[in-house]
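Technical appendix A lists one of the benchmark inputs used to test multi-chain prediction within the project. The record comprises two sequence entries:
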Amino acid sequence: QYNHNINHNLPLNLKYEKQYVGFATLPNQVHRKSVKKGFDFTLMVAGESGMGKSTLVNSLFLTDLYKDRKLLNAEERINQTVEIIKHTVDIEEKGVKLKLTIVDTPGFGDAVNNNECWKPITDYIDQQFEQYFRDESGLNRKNIQDNRVHCCLYFIPPFGHGCMKALHEKVNIIPLIAKADCLTPNEIKKLKDRIREEIDKFGIKVYQFPECDSDEDEEFKQLDKELKECTPFAVIGSNTVVEARGQRVRGRLYPWGIVEVENQSHCDFVKLRNMLIRSHMHDLKDVTCDVHYENYRAQCIQEMTSKLTQDNRMESPIPILSTPDVETEKLIKMKDEELKRMQEMLNKMQQQMHDKDQ
Amino acid sequence: MWTLQSCGSVLTLSINADLARPCTDLFGYVGIEAVLDQMRRKTIKAGLEFNIMVVGQSGLGKSTLVNTLFKSKVSRKSCTPNYEEKISKTVKLHSVSHVIEEKGVKMKLTVIDTPGFGDQINNDNCWEPIVKHVNEQYEKYLREELHINRKRRIPDSRVHCCIYFLPATGHRLRPIDVEFMKRLGKIVSIVPVIAKADTLTIEERQEFKEQIRQDLAANGIRVYPQKEYDEDPEERILNDRIRESIPFAVVGTDKEHQVNGNKVLGRKTKWGIIEVENVAHCEFANLRDLLIRSHLQDLKDVTHDIHYETYRVRRLNESNMNYSELGLSTWPLENKCESDSHL
């Protein structure tokens, strides 16, 4: 279980020992509220058809989201545009509720000419930002729904590369090497190196794991290091159970052997799952809110205010508070200072009169 | 279940596969409750800010109580030597911040004192500087929130809790109490306490509390925890119990004495030692539990989700901007949608 050592034991019992003030229970109070409210998470998957995206998503969340899917044949796909399809799933485990939204992008990279295939995706991401921006700027902010995309799993075919650059400043990208069971360990290593080089060379900003705290224990730091050195993750997914080494495992059965999805020497599925869900889900949301969304918002405001100055008819898109302008402020300051001087003179005069009386 | 939306060239098909059953026969465990751990770590790392205001006439033991609550000298008592006490003509607010740490959790505690409140012969409008201060903090936060380049964590100087000290007269609320709580109760969470309660017997205390509760109800004053903000039945039951026992009758001290071989915080008199943390003697422990151990986060949430939002709505309406009626043409994506061609 990816539950590193928190360096203190917080008793859940609120009847606390006397010598403490007791505000260290705050994380528990927050905890209780979160359990009641539950969490939400929006995950986008992008990659050509047949990369194993659906299988991987099902494997990650132990769901069966694509039961009734109909796969299109080549002819049908010639004129297909990139679609955006959302699936929502409610998962509950140990009393914690997660509302998971998977945003699928069928058609991505499938056409003959894929020059603009990323556009529907960036438009979708922007739409969610815009919706949130409107909600946040509105008057009733009680139940804002957060549909922003927190993470995009980008499937790189084992023999190719992709166009991540269009997305990298809008969403947290986690590149994955798909269908890694057709590569030998050496080939995987070479491919990972090549991808990392390309990412550096083209300045693609993929999701960066945050640095470890200095007070974390060694085991955690080691795990964290291994995680970072392992990217991009080479993954395999499976919805079927096979028997391997006397156990029932999730895997793929080939004549030459059995690939076990959860075997860390076979692929990085476990690392991906641990990272995505068990250790970095919250950080992915934070980076989306604090970085990607804020960038969008700042850009939006600037665009709109520049339009505003050009066209006086339009109303301001964000709340503007009535503030005194610079000129008025200057005037007020001057008057203040004048008043101060007069007051000082008065005090002096009073003092003099008082002294005289003595 | 199925909704079809179209915006320009993008067809969005939303399927609500509500409660798709996880393949538990493919055994496993996704591990989502680890998200709570992640949140907890972040909360602990970030530390917390808590701003508490104390209001009441001088001599009611405000500073002593705050020091007792937080087990540190966070507030300077006006009875210490060298304390320059000028009876000022107006209420001057006075903020002091301290960072206290406990079990790895850091808290930046700010105590806002209000010397001069209720101390004059004519106390008309003595609540005004306080109302002004509370609103100023909301205004500050609002401006930060509206900024183009916002801080990751907006510094929170909003008043999360206002402890109002009632002298232990044993009778009823005085006009100044009613006036203050009526006005402030609308913009901040008020927790009234009966100060220096060691002059009341248990029976007198019960009668006094009952009278106060009646007076509060009669004047339409809502103190924390407000009934209308209870989120679910479980919370309602918990808060009802609290509402039936407020205002808490408290005694504060920083002196320790020996009682039955234990060191206790207490006030020593000729007829006995009043143990501050003994629930049979006074309700200090209940107040501390409410404010810190169980409702600390809730106080902050109520301030943020309710009081602050109320202020914000009022300010936005004042500025004559109504965003729900914004013309769509000002939003960039709508423009793009209309003008761009299909893929």
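The CA atoms of residues 1 and 16 of chain B lie 6 Å apart. Chain B touches chain A through 91 residues (CB under 8 Å). Comparable benchmark entries are summarised in Table A2.
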